[in-house]
């Protein structure tokens, strides 16, 4: 027991857990040995019962291509885990094919306990989502896990944000006006264009210097009893946050949460080609992603909103 506990303290992300929780995890572990070299999991076929933590030996993980060649080969050694991403994001099926080297020994944690840790400890959960996001930056890796075109085969539908680039999205056109434009005129234009965001150009240089939203008008004009004849530049929000069309969707969402903005200007080679709204990005399908769920909980403003988020957990876990 103490040997397992000492080992877990050296394993990321288990080293992020409180010591009393780690002791319970150590007690729940099962030891599994692989005396012979053999394939133990097949990509998108083998159902993962939980998480493997390598103690001795090595796992070789890879994808088979259409000609049965091994692609994107990686080696997992003592202290590495396998199965977390598969359980959380691939409907419990092994994301990759896994070959266990001879005399490999692992500690096995059942997916029930693993999911409980993910739900209770945000940093623990983020380790797996961040790791998946980093791997999806590898285009060859992303090729093998990219969702299939058929909805029935779409085994990573809720996590397309990790493989999809902003250039594939439909952007809204940038609408802008000079900072000297009266507030009431900007509100009229927003209503006519059916847009919740209007960008503001600097009067001197013509560069976009800020923006106003329906929330800006509500909080600064209506609630603040401001004179709607004033220049819109007096109430604009700033700074404007930008992102490249080559960035991934998940990078855009992270940037929005980090900067607390609801809108991103999208540029290609320094030219603004449109903008994204947070509401547009967080569609119903993407909102089922554990990654997005954590971010939305962090942004919750009140107890009723937290309650609504919590009610999504059973469905989200079921989909995983």
From TrEMBL:
Pfam families: CBS, cNMP_binding. The keyword Signal does not apply. InterPro entries: CBS_dom, CBS_dom_sf, cNMP-bd_dom, cNMP-bd_dom_sf, Diverse_CBS-Domain, RmlC-like_jellyroll. SMART domains: CBS, cNMP. It comes from Hymenobacter humi. Residues 13-135 form the Cyclic nucleotide-binding domain. Keywords: CBS domain. This is CBS domain-containing protein. SUPFAM superfamilies: cAMP-binding domain-like (SSF51206), CBS-domain pair (SSF54631). It comes from the Bacteria. The keyword Cell division does not apply.
